[in-house]
Design brief:
By secondary structure, this protein is an alpha+beta fold. The chain has one domain (23-106): mini-chromosome maintenance (MCM) complex, domain 2 (Sandwich). It is 20% helix and 36% strand. It has two helices and seven strands. The strands form two sheets. The protein has a four-stranded antiparallel beta sheet with strand order 2-1-7-6. A three-stranded antiparallel beta sheet has the order 3-4-5. A hairpin with a 4-residue loop joins strand 3 (49-54) and strand 4.
């Protein structure tokens, strides 16, 4: 019973620390129809940059500004992807299921002793 308690506390601590210190993303990967279309750097420029991506329903527009990405327009009916808002943390995703478009934020590539 004590071992189970110790393992549970350790796992919950790891999860809490991961959520408390989310990693800022460095790149946005855009996918359409299940295929990677392009990768964009999430720079900290104050000028918004808009890009388009063609999905199954038509063209969607997304914007990168101050290291964050968001969907601006989409041909889907419910606009859930637009309401998702801006994302900038590694692992966050904007998905438009009807248009089959996804934008994923990837984190920094880390080098350690094993990968050298």
């Amino acid at each position: 019973m004590l071992v189970i308690l110790v393992v549970a506390v350790a796992v919950s601590s790891i999860v809490a620390l991961a959520r408390a210190n989310p990693e800022k993303g460095s790149r946005a990967v855009v996918e359409a129809g299940g295929r990677q279309v392009d990768t964009y750097k999430l720079g900290n420029s104050g000028t918004p940059e808009r890009f388009s991506v063609r999905g199954d329903l038509g063209i969607g527009v997304f914007e990168i500004e101050n290291g964050r990405v968001r969907m601006v327009s989409s041909p889907c009916r419910d606009k859930i992807c637009i309401h998702r808002g801006r994302i900038d943390q590694a692992g966050e995703t904007i998905i438009c299921l009807p248009n089959r478009v996804a934008i994923r934020v990837l984190g920094q590539a880390r080098v350690d002793a094993l990968s050298e």
